[in-house]
Amino acid sequence: MMRIILLFLFLSTAFSLSAQHISNTAVYRDIHSPKYFRLHYENDYFSTSDLYYTQGVNVEYVHPAISKFFTSKLLVHSASKETKFGASLEQEGYTPTSIAHPEILEGDRPFAAALFFKTFSAVNNPKKEERISSSLSVGLMGPAAGGEQIQEALHRLINYTLPEGWDNQISNTLILNYELEYHRGIFSLDKYFSFIGRAGVRAGTFNTKANISTIIMAGYFEDPFTNFSRQERKFQVYIYAEPLLNIVGYDATLQGGLFNHSSPYTIASTDIQRLVFQGNAGIVFRINTVQLEYFQTYLSKEFRTGGDHVWGGIRIGWYLNR
């Protein structure tokens, strides 16, 4: 079964397969515990801008009991290797380059919002330095996701320009997406340096794409491929960098829903950039039962008339009692 999944992942990166920016299973932000709680917050305010992918919030809970969820049965798991199960609630918001115009800005990004529930799993193979992870997302995109209300409330809080134009956002549509990822250790130096290869594929009504990347971790950290319940270092500090290439097939935040074509404005398929570069870099601290992360992400333009984009974020995780 595991070999079939690996073959599928690598073959998928050869074919055309952005959104769902927040990753719960990336090795460089791993928490070595089968039980923890984590809050992810991303905003382009960290890069002094307010456009495109403007905000993402993800509340994550990892616990063995989540393996009993119906959706968890559809995830990758192993009877012989330790499997970590988690669930999260995520909200994302997207805007054009200006939020001060109530009319449609032709050639710009459409307003869009998404709200979905995600279950995910990760299986480590310490002997081969491999990890396979999977996730299933179910939710809604459109006015029902509350993007307008969230952004307006945040802008009132910081006394910033109130957004206009949400009446032209992508219409309500179903989110149903499945994702697979494969990490493989290539070179490591006594847990102070790791060079890792990664491939991923996702498909569904929200987005369809494949990506491939390399990951560099340097500092003082736990081997990301050891079993999740094993903890040797109560203090960790390290930096990471991940250059990543996306091969984009479909993005509902740009093109609208697959089954609902009533959106006031979308980007034509012919204007979608099929190759999109992304760079992730950050620093992670762990002190006893708390893990902190700060990061920045760069994304090249996603459509012909668009531009590149930078945002940042923080993540705070708490280890729970075993």
The counted number of beta strands is: 12
- Spans of 5+ residues with little confidence (pLDDT < 50)? 1-19
Q: Into which percent range does the helicity of residues fall? A: under 10%
Overall CATH class? Mainly Beta
Strand count, sense and closure of the main sheet? Answer: 12 strands, antiparallel, barrel
> How many helices does DSSP assign?
3
CATH architecture: Beta Barrel
How far the N terminus sits from the C terminus, by CA atoms, comes to 30 Å
Rg over CA atoms, rounded to whole Å, is 19 Å
CATH superfamily: Outer membrane protein
Detailed description of the structure:
The chain has 322 residues and is mainly β. The protein has one domain (2-319): Lipocalin, CATH 2.40.128.140. The protein has helices at residues 2-12, 147-157, 252-255; strands spanning 36-43, 52-62, 83-95, 112-125, 130-141, 173-189, 193-204, 207-220, 235-251, 275-287, 290-299, 309-319. The chain has a twelve-stranded antiparallel beta barrel. A hairpin with an 8-residue loop joins strand 1 and strand 2.
Topology:
Layout: H1 2-12, E1 36-43, E2 52-62, E3 83-95, E4 112-125, E5 130-141, H2 147-157, E6 173-189, E7 193-204, E8 207-220, E9 235-251, H3 252-255, E10 275-287, E11 290-299, E12 309-319
Antiparallel strand pairs: 1-2, 1-12, 2-3, 3-4, 4-5, 5-6, 6-7, 7-8, 8-9, 9-10, 10-11, 11-12
